[in-house]
Amino acid sequence: METELIVNMVKGFNIIAGYAYNKAYSINTNADIDGLRQWTGPAQTVNLWVNYAFQATALQGFSIGAGGNYNSKAYISQSRQYGEFHIPEYVVMNAVAGYDIKRFRISFKVDNLTNKLYWGSYVNQMMPRRFSANLAVKL
Q: Which PANTHER family does the UniProt record give (predicted)?
């Protein structure tokens, strides 16, 4: 099951939220793993992003945003005989600030604000905190 909600509450303020639930497990294989989760990704994922673009004359063009992602524990393998191997649950937070004028947009983003050590679905270590800048030219 997946669901997504996009809300534009007032001019310049929006929220994007999502939730997914995955109940996948092995059947008709062997007694050691039947009914157990295998390499299927996390059972639950949640994402949230909140953004505000200032509307007041003095700050018009300036915007800020923040949000994050949550993944529950993700099993790589489970066995009644050998136990389980899984990726732990995690929360990663991000933020951005930008300025938009007629033909240009510049933004600065921080991913993984808390410098959380976490692992991706292919058991690879994900990026530590990182900073990025973006300059866009509108033609």
A: FERRICHROME IRON RECEPTOR-RELATED (PTHR32552), TONB-DEPENDENT OUTER MEMBRANE RECEPTOR (PTHR32552:SF81)
